[in-house]
């Protein structure tokens, strides 16, 4: 459970479904007759993944600003809550996929299955292990689990920076993370590694897109953004309107007018969007501005709650739905109707998975592990010896849970004192 109840950032919940739909559409594709600008936007739908990573940093830092990894029970509660939130549905889809492959006589790729089971496949240099043999979107869950592991040890440093230096320190941290991302991109671009196929273990796809370490700047920027949210209270609504408009125009404009080549693709793995996403997060979290209001509507929030289920279940279904083939082969309006039907069916399945697998499993795991993570009962206040009670009443008055009893007592010095 979070350390304290805080207002729900509804616009960021709604933003999650935008990120998930970007990934879904990039996998589903669009009909050939779709206008080229829209095709380019859909082609960059994978930017929903780094957006998820930054969103994760924002939400965790917002809800656990006081967490410390060395404090024991709170950290254990945090880890269990994260596992209960993410892994049951991930495992359900993985087991379903493996069962389907077994029933249909396909190779189960045992070692790849083990890596997927423990969500460490993203560290593999083999693209098929990471994204081919089983649920392709599952690689990002390994990245998230790595971030969860580090979070209780990172958040104290970010919180200290916010207390000590305020907004200036947080902005410097974000600038530093942007510089790290720029350096990583430059290394791959100028050495020619960005030109390599994603199947190559040295490729930018393997490192800049799939490796958790290279996405860590996005996550840290998300954490820093959470501490910048209070500063937006002084911004006018007009400023939020303008900022959200600029970010939307930048993201979609860059997708439409981008250049060709591996350098552009490698930068789209995170570098291009790090600072714009930070600005979007802190503005949307305020709940003000046209985009924040749109994302905060009940429909968008509801879809946002099921966005993880949509993300983790859609890939296998796209392979199986009979309507998918008509997206590429149909004529006239047929491919557009097929795409719409696919999206509606995927949303329906995601809602069911969220309601009947994800949430019940989360509640069950949280309940059965509660006794492991409950705070230790307070130690009873020791009964003082007669001599100590008489000799040190003022010391007892400020010690332990029974202190109030002694504060009201009249102090009588011992005889001869």
Distance between the termini: 53 Å
Q: Portion of residues in helices?
A: 55-70%
Largest sheet: none
Structural class: mainly alpha
Instruction: Please provide the ordered H/E string of secondary-structure elements.
Output: HHHHHHHHHHHHHHHHHHHHH
Q: Number of helical segments?
A: 21
How does the overall form come out from the CA principal axes?
A: globular
The tally of strands reads: 0
Description of the molecule:
The protein starts with 9 loop residues before the first helix and ends in a 10-residue tail after the last helix. It is an all-alpha fold and 417 residues long. Helices cover 69% and strands 0% of the residues. It has two domains: 10-373, no CATH class; 380-411, no CATH class. The chain has 21 helices and no strands.
In short:
The chain is mainly alpha-helical and 417 residues long. It has helices at residues 10-28, 36-43, 48-63, 73-103, 110-117, 127-132, 139-190, 204-209, 212-228, 237-257, 262-267, 274-284, 290-295, 298-305, 307-320, 324-329, 334-368, 370-373, 386-391, 393-396, 403-407.
